């Protein structure tokens, strides 16, 4: 794919309404839907524009997408257009066995459930509702009953990082086909949470790398693109070879490791992108009001889907074009030999520095020197 023309993934925040009270919520969700949300017709138009761009994967997100009475219609329309459709329902009483079966019958390709801790009391506290853990496990069982591929999403921050190995074991027991591990970006309610010390990220990368090598499921690390740098370094140690030109690398010195480009999960389920995805680079986010952002965690608008086509915004917006230019990056990210496959979290750079082209504060790597600097704990505040 050419990420200057087409995103690998489009996420539409169908609504910000949700009955959970998650302590890290990007959207600071509340129970009621906004009256100016994109309509069903506007949603169909957005799906068609994504399909016309050649985007393969489209995710209906929230809030809680189950708050939308047209959710099944949106899934059916996306499938009619040839998109691979996913959604991320919240673990509330609205999520039932019957609803999971209806999603499968509508053509949903993959259902994601959030599990941030492997223990009920910790997860329920994080999600703000008692019983969320047990309902999530029940929903995982309902997905298996109707052969709907299951994805698990996990948020990592200073407290939850200690449970990473235990979470990996739980994901395997749940027979998920995909595990998305999200490194916290302090936006919304997440501004109050403690971040992960930059050197600690390297330890977590090591644990994730070992999981990725042996796991049956696909592992995706989100908002920590320096994990790709870590894997490239580890893979190069195993098989020393001359540098290979990579389409995403500006200097031709680094290639995207094969382990990070797994195209399919178990049973031909959704896999990983062919190149390194980042905000505005292979990825685009559309808000419930139609604002088009490089990421839901980088709330700088590039345009509105009600006024312009998604293709025009993604391909021509100065914001999106700057984010796709490795040479536009500042600080250590701009000097790094891995900037083509990594580029740092643009969302975190913006959240913590106010500059979406600045150094990712959660990376300690010193470019072209092969060593790391000591760094303090970076809080979410």
Question: Any descriptors?
Answer:
381 residues; 13 strands; nine-stranded mixed beta sheet; single chain; alpha/beta
Percent range for β-strand residues: 5-15%
Helix amount, in percent?
Answer: 25-40%
Tell me, rounded to a whole number, the average pLDDT.
91
Structural class: alpha/beta
In spatial order, strands of the major sheet run 7-6-5-4-3-2-1-10-11
Number of strands: 13
Largest sheet: 9 strands, mixed
**Roughly how many Å apart are the termini?**
37 Å
Number of helices: 12
Low-confidence stretches: 242-252, 374-381
Structure description:
The chain has 381 residues and is of the alpha/beta class. The chain has helices at 40-53, 71-80, 97-106, 120-127, 132-145, 164-173, 198-214, 226-238, 310-316, 318-323, 331-335, 346-353; strands at 9-13, 57-61, 84-87, 110-114, 150-156, 178-183, 218-222, 264-265, 269-270, 283-286, 292-293, 365-366, 371-372. The strands form three sheets. A nine-stranded mixed β-sheet has the order 7-6-5-4-3-2-1-10-11. Helix 3 crosses helix 5 (132-145). It is globular, with a radius of gyration of 19 Å.
């Amino acid at each position: 794919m050419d990420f200057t023309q087409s995103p690998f993934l489009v996420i539409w925040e169908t609504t910000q309404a949700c009955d959970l009270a998650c302590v890290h919520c990007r959207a600071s969700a509340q129970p009621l839907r906004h009256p100016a949300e994109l309509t069903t017709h506007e949603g169909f138009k957005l799906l068609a524009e994504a399909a016309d761009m050649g985007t393969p994967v489209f995710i209906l997100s929230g809030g809680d997408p189950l708050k939308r009475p047209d959710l099944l219609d949106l899934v059916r329309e996306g499938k009619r257009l040839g998109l691979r459709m996913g959604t991320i329902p919240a673990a509330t009483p609205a999520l039932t066995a019957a609803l999971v079966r209806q999603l499968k019958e509508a053509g949903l390709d993959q259902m994601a459930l959030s599990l941030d801790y492997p223990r009920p009391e910790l997860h329920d506290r994080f999600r703000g509702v008692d019983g969320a853990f047990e309902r999530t496990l029940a929903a995982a069982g309902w997905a298996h009953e109707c052969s709907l591929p299951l994805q698990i999403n996990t948020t990592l921050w200073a407290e939850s990082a200690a449970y990473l190995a235990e979470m990996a074991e739980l994901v395997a027991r749940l027979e998920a086909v995909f595990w998305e591990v999200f490194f916290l970006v302090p936006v919304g309610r997440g501004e109050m949470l403690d971040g992960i010390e930059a050197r600690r990220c390297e330890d977590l990368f090591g644990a994730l790398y070992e999981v990725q090598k042996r796991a049956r499921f696909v592992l995706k690390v989100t908002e920590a693109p320096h994990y790709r740098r870590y894997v490239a370094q580890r893979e190069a140690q195993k098989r020393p070879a001359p540098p290979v030109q990579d389409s995403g690398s500006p200097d031709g010195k680094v290639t995207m490791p094969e382990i990070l480009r797994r195209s399919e999960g178990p049973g031909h389920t959704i896999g990983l992108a062919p190149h390194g995805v980042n905000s505005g680079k292979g990825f685009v986010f559309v808000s419930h009001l139609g604002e088009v952002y490089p990421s839901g965690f980088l709330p700088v608008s590039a345009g509105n889907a009600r006024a312009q086509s998604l293709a025009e915004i993604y391909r021509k917006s100065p914001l999106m074009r700057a984010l796709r230019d490795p040479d536009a990056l500042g600080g250590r990210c701009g000097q790094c030999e891995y900037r083509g496959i990594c580029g740092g979290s643009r969302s975190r750079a913006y959240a913590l520095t106010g500059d979406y082209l600045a150094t990712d504060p959660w990376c300690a790597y010193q470019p072209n020197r092969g060593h790391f600097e000591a760094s303090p704990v970076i809080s979410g505040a």
